Amino acid sequence: MQHTANKIGRWQGAGLLTTTLLGTSVFILPQMTIETASDWAMLSWVLLTLAILPVAMVFAKLSSHFPHAGGPAYFVEKAFGKSAGRTIGLLFLFVVPIGAPAAIIMTYWFIETLFGLSPEWALPVQFSIIALLFLLNYRGIQFSATLQLMLTLIITLVVIAMVAGKSFLPDISTTAQFQAPLNWTPVLGAMGIAFWSFLGIEAISHLAEDFAEPKRDLVPAIMTGTLLVGVIYLGCTYLLIDTPHTDTLSMVSVFDQLFSNGGAYIIGALGVAGGLATVNVYTASLSRLIWSLSNDNVLPRYFQQLNNYRVPQRALQCILVVMSATLVITHYSAHDLEDLIGWVNGVFVLIYLASMLAALRLLSARHQPLVALSCIFCATIAVGLGTKMLYALGLFTIFAPLLWYQQRYILPRLKRSV
Fold first, then answer.
1. Which residues of 288-318 are buried (b: 16+ CB within 10 A; e: fewer)?
2. What secondary structure does DSSP assign to 281-305, as a single string?
3. Are 280 and 137 in contact (CB under 8 A)?
4. Which pTM value belongs to this model?
5. Are 69 and 276 in contact (CB under 8 A)?
6. pLDDT tens per residue across span 31-58
7. Measuring CA to CA, which residue among 32, 22, 124, 114 is closest to residue 336?
8. 250-277 pLDDT tens trace
9. Half-sphere exposure of 220 (CA within 13 A, CB side)
């Protein structure tokens, strides 16, 4: 897909991936995992980071050998046929109705903290985020990739400074840790929540063709970003492990304890920027996926058109309209952020598992141990999610037979009529 003349390198790619994975959740998810696994939340993060590395490597290898806007859907199609690949593509698209509201709601929490806004500002601010996403994506992703590399460095430096500050001031952290006996059920539950933090590895695979040299740059970009993210989340969990969670954003209180004040401004600004980065990369990757599915006749031909900057603008606009509608629905209905995160994670467990199974056919035999470990990881996260897997399984049950029927009967008829 020659959708843009602008290309990115390995460090810009690492910046895109890292800020996508950190997003708003770098200051929220550690607190949620502590509430689930208590003293053993750090163990959950260590296990998750170690377990995700094989998955990241397999995605990097697949993306560098088979760069395509379809990403995981393309990998699965090459391995198992068009019906299977298109099922995965539609699963990815149907993350938007629940994933985008979750990410934008988290971003708004930071804006609310930063400016002290009242509840009636929620929807207007969220719509402003949608408008900004259009501007960021209209001319391609190179400019935002450079900005996100800078944001990655800033977030990393702030977390390092906070961890160092806590280490040199032991009086802020006096509670004894690991008093509770090890219970694997909450540890797995925390891993299921924390899995959200690594959703974005596959998004870079949609953008593989935006790299100047994907075979050379994708592997170091994905592996550097993944490892750095794991370390940063572990550092944030260390900061919060013995902090009373009385606020929505306990990280602000920790920052104020360490540096006297300014937590709302620093953490708020970084959270807003990180949230925009997360939704920005998913918006870009989803628009390219819609373009790809449109070219394959799965979605209407309307989405095949590119703008003057070789960006699939119609697909981009459609995604932003859906995001806006679902934000309205989410705003006026009772919702639980942890449930939204769990449902999104369930869809990605299926997408990741399908991609790993595709890698068994597409990659050489020497990669099979990595693929086997990745499959075990996906199964473990599915167990940790429990009933939250039902949304993903329901989508798969609906889409798989419908797309098989389309591929087997409807498309051949259309070709004959032409």
1. bbbbbbbbbbbbeeebbebeeeebbbbbbeb
2. HHHHHHHHHHHHHHHTTSS-GGGG-
3. yes
4. 0.76
5. no
6. 889 988 888 999 999 999 999 999 999 9
7. 32
8. 888 888 888 877 777 888 888 888 778 7
9. 10
